[in-house]
């Protein structure tokens, strides 16, 4: 029996159920263990209560205590610093990593009037939306998908920006009014990907997880997360990143785009490198971004 630890939210349990079903298809018995994290009960802004790492600390504690065998995280919520005794045993095939707009009256971002109120708790999104010069106003919000979209349907906000992957896993893509091009808004490092964490010495679980790992997704998110780590930025910092494995002249290569919010705007750069060395690519692009600030 593999004990899978998950947060209690609809999205977290949906993501964990996807992983559990994959493991069951491979012949494993899986039990979901519901765990409450600080981020689920404290509604203060993330930057005030420790960043998005607050969503994973309780799960990691349960792993280290032997209370669960694996934990499923949204990889964008997972701090870049490693934890002794734990490892990410699998990163499955990534969902579409882009951000989406859910707006009143089916409007797109360009159709919103100047002064329109957009809800997002992400400094990354705020910095990039401001840089577009559309004259919209951003306001911080917290809460689950129902709460956020409800603010639009109730008329409290003109729109909210969310991760497309979450809505896809919840079966709610019909509510999207626009998928934002990464040229406008780069997603968070690791967005759309799941990280399945386990104890580093649990060889049986690591063997069970191996078939779930997608090498191209792992390479891409490793480059993105290394960029974030090199910038010494927390998960709530205004950093966007998106890497993709593409076919180059000499075979597959990794392309990485990065965005860093500054007081005077957003710096954007891209770079490419070998698929088998995503860490070096992430470091190189991060250093290039720092040199331009």
TrEMBL record:
The protein's matches in PROSITE patterns, at most eight in alphabetical order, are given as: PORPHOBILINOGEN_DEAM
In terms of InterPro entries, this protein maps to: HemC (IPR000860), Porphobilin_deaminase_cofac_BS (IPR022419), Porphobilin_deaminase_N (IPR022417), Porphobilinogen_deaminase_C (IPR022418), Porphobilinogen_deaminase_C_sf (IPR036803)
Instruction: List residues, modification S-(dipyrrolylmethanemethyl)cysteine.
Output: 235
**What is its cofactor?**
dipyrromethane
Renumbered to this chain, the signal peptide range is: none
The record's section on Gene3D superfamilies has:
Periplasmic binding protein-like II, Porphobilinogen deaminase, C-terminal domain
- Per the record, the domain of life is Bacteria
* Gene Ontology molecular function, alphabetical: hydroxymethylbilane synthase activity
Q: Describe how the cofactor binds.
A: Binds 1 dipyrromethane group covalently.
Query: Any idea of its EC number?
Result: 2.5.1.61
Catalysis performed (reactions): 4 porphobilinogen + H2O = hydroxymethylbilane + 4 NH4(+)
GO biological-process terms attached to the record: protoporphyrinogen IX biosynthetic process
**Domain Porphobilinogen deaminase C-terminal, residue spans:** 220-290
Q: Which UniProt keywords apply?
A: Porphyrin biosynthesis, Transferase
Q: Where is the Porphobilinogen deaminase N-terminal domain?
A: 2-205
Q: Name one Pfam family in it.
A: Porphobil_deam
Q: Which GO terms describe its cellular component?
A: cytoplasm
Q: HAMAP family of this UniProt entry?
A: Porphobil_deam
Family that this chain belongs to: Belongs to the HMBS family.
Q: How does it assemble?
A: Monomer.
Miscellaneous:
The porphobilinogen subunits are added to the dipyrromethane group.
Q: What does this protein do?
A: Tetrapolymerization of the monopyrrole PBG into the hydroxymethylbilane pre-uroporphyrinogen in several discrete steps.
Record protein name field? Porphobilinogen deaminase
- Species the sequence originates in: Kribbella sp. HUAS MG21
């Amino acid at each position: 029996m593999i004990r899978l630890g998950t947060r209690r939210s609809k999205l977290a349990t949906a993501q964990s159920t996807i992983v559990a079903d994959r493991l069951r298809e491979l012949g494993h018995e899986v039990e979901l263990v519901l765990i409450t994290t600080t981020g689920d009960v404290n509604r203060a802004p993330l930057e005030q209560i420790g960043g998005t790492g607050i969503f994973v600390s309780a799960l990691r504690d349960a792993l280290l205590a032997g209370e669960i065998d694996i934990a499923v995280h949204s990889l964008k919520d997972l701090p870049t610093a490693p934890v002794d005794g734990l490892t990410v045993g699998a990163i499955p095939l990534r969902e579409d990593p882009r951000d989406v707009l859910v707006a009143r009256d089916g409007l797109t971002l360009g159709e919103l009037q100047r002064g329109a109120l957009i809800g997002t708790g992400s400094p990354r999104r705020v910095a990039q939306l401001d840089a577009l010069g559309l004259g919209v106003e951003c306001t911080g919000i917290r809460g689950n998908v129902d709460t956020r979209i409800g603010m639009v349907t109730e008329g409290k906000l003109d729109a909210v920006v969310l991760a497309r992957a979450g809505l896809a896993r919840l079966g709610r893509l019909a509510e999207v009014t626009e998928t934002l091009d990464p040229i406008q808004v780069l997603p968070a490092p690791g967005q759309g990907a799941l990280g399945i964490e386990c104890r580093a010495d649990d060889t049986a679980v690591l063997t069970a997880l191996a078939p779930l790992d997608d090498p191209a997704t792992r390479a891409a998110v490793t480059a993105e997360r290394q960029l974030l780590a090199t910038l010494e930025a927390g998960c709530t910092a205004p950093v966007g990143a998106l890497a993709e494995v593409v076919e180059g002249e000499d075979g597959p290569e990794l392309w990485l785009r990065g965005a860093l919010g500054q007081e005077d705007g957003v710096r954007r750069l891209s770079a490419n490198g070998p698929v088998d060395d995503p860490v070096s690519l992430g470091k190189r692009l991060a250093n290039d971004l720092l040199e331009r600030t």
